[in-house]
Design brief:
2 copies of one chain form a homodimer. Chain A has 361 residues and is of the alpha/beta class. Helix content of chain A is 48%, strand content 11%. Chain A is globular and about 70 Å long. The first copy, chain A, starts with a helix and ends in a 10-residue tail after the last helix.
């Protein structure tokens, strides 16, 4: 990891400030004076406190919301690890642009940007499509590292740049989504290497593999990890894990998270793939977790291990496993609602409401 | 239960049609053709299917959303069962009208109606306030039935009328909320009697009782149930449970649920109190459950027993215990999102996306 790009990551993360505990306490004091029994809004209060500390005590109203869907192909699809053919990545990007995908139906006034960081297809210029292709798909991790050092650096940098642009556009809260046939294979390999959990534990059926397909996927992941990190995993560097068994969209999301944390934006992770990117970012710089919300808990078995690894708790648990950012955008109204409490709720004294005595009246 | 009002309940529930299984199957067939792996949207698909069957295959877009917060006082507060004084019911109604309560901050474009069915205060006419007072608070269940037959009938009828009016206003999806100091005592008594669970299991700290306060509450509930239904509970009639140990706002919500199901509206229950009303409605007419969504699972311990009794699964689980409809309105965007899938998502063929083969590609 001696390329020029690595230096920019180091510079980038040095600009990430931790969120202040004092802000969380101040938020809780405010919440405790609002016209509701203390603690009665449960996790909404913790979410409000986290947002308050992310925004340094100035929660913007209304929140400007955006979703970034990072798309790339994966060389490892050559090994037959997905229920869908590789072409579906490009087909789905076109579907996003035409408004026909699940994420389009679930946007709820959030701004959608689709980012091509490595799809094996040349897209024409289109509004809402950001063309930052590093390569037409990552390399096949089963045979070589998924990315060269330069490719990794470029993907990370693209993501970070987008986050800076997002802030310039005035966006406050950004959801991560992805599209990439084969990317649960990459995410499973990252998860096993990063968390130390067994490959079998963290590898699921992706978009719908049968037992035979899943066994092939397990075998490919096992061989890939062995090739790059040896039989006994010797705690490889997080960015090296990302480079060898990750993917271009995952790397771009990692870069985006670094950039978004630098800009003090609230970040909502979606499912297994985006949380794999978040876990790499967390492993490099634990402070980023202060800026993260987990939109939901996916059915992909590796996801809950990643959430535990980062130490973030999902807002929703609806048995979803689609990606695209769908679980992240569904959680947006909950976070928005939590933020709105501060600016709209009355205090006991302002509303003339009597306070409680726990001893019963 | 021989009053004139009982007859209208019988008439009312005879007009409730069950939702058709055929509609759910048709919905699933549609969902399976949309551009996403089969089943990958998890519970969102089940929610979409239920909405599709509630609306007889014509899911309106956009959904017109409303929240009805039913408020009443409780005679049993004389026994010292709440952390807050009785006046808070009226104070909070005024807070709702002034926009300072949690429910106001969480509305998300839903229309709010506050319904006074029994607050111990004379409110002036105000937009968004529906004055249907039956009595200035229910009677003290510890000494006599909480309502006379006539009062129960009037509260049920008021709720049903409001539901019919809601439909006339074009509302499709209605969330239930409530405000009433003392009403967790009533809901616990209903829950224990209806489900057969022990009083200790289904009784919590309400808005914040300490151990001593909770013990007093337990004692009052135990004595009240014994007074009305004898030591060995002999399966009393659901509406008789409601009359003896319920409350005016709970009865009005039960009536509202009957009316809303008659009108084929989607009903979102909130926490412990509104679900107690829903459980009574379900006990009288199990078909109403077809029209119900459980917005969330409250921290009040009796709530999960009621959800299991009715057989509905909460959408959110965020540790909330406030009432007012807060958990129900938070779930609205999830239900709306599920409904939008049908009208906005492309099919595999319309979008030109290749389909899956579970054997891996």
């Amino acid at each position: 990891m001696s390329s020029a790009q690595t230096f920019s990551v180091v510079d980038l993360i040095s600009a990430i400030a931790p969120c202040q505990e004092a802000h969380k306490l101040e938020a809780q004091r405010r919440l405790d004076n609002l016209t509701k029994p203390i603690g009665s809004l449960g996790r909404l209060e913790a979410i409000a406190g986290q947002a308050y500390s992310i925004f340094s005590g100035q929660v913007p109203q209304p929140l400007s919301k955006a979703v970034y869907v990072f798309a790339a192909d994966h060389g490892v699809t050559e090994e037959g690890v997905s229920a869908y053919p590789r072409e579906v990545t490009a087909q789905m990007v076109l579907n996003f642009m035409q408004g026909g995908a699940a994420i389009n139906a679930l946007l709820h006034q959030a701004d959608l940007t689709v980012v091509d960081v490595g799809v094996d297809y040349e897209f024409e210029k289109a509004p809402g499509l950001c063309r930052m292709k590093v390569r037409r798909g990552s390399r096949n991790m089963h045979r070589e590292p998924a990315m060269s050092h330069e490719e990794l650096g470029q993907a990370l940098e693209s993501g970070a740049c987008l986050a800076h642009e997002a802030r310039k556009k005035g966006q406050h809260i950004v959801a991560l989504g992805e599209m990439g046939i084969g990317n649960t294979t990459a995410a499973s390999a990252i998860t096993a290497t990063l968390t130390g959990e067994s490959i079998g534990t963290v590898t699921g059926r992706g978009t719908g593999l049968d037992d035979l397909g899943r066994n092939r996927k397990l075998h490919v992941i096992k061989r890939s990890i062995k090739r790059h990190f040896g039989a006994s995993s010797s705690n490889p560097e997080p960015l090296e894990i990302l480079r060898c068994v990750g993917g271009l969209e995952i790397a771009a999301m990692t870069g985006f998270i670094f950039g978004a944390a630098t800009e003090r934006m609230a970040i909502i992770c979606d499912g297994f793939i985006s949380t794999a990117a978040a876990a790499v970012a967390y492993a490099v710089c634990p402070r980023v977790a202060d800026y993260m919300f987990a939109g939901h808990c996916s059915e992909e078995p590796g996801h809950r291990h990643l959430l535990r690894y980062i130490g973030i708790k999902p807002i929703l648990d609806l048995g979803m496993r689609l990606g695209e950012g769908t679980g992240a955008v569904l959680a947006m109204p909950v976070i928005e609602s939590a933020c709105r409490l501060f600016s709209e709720m009355a205090t006991f004294s302002s509303a003339g409401v009597s306070e409680a005595s726990p001893k019963a009246n």
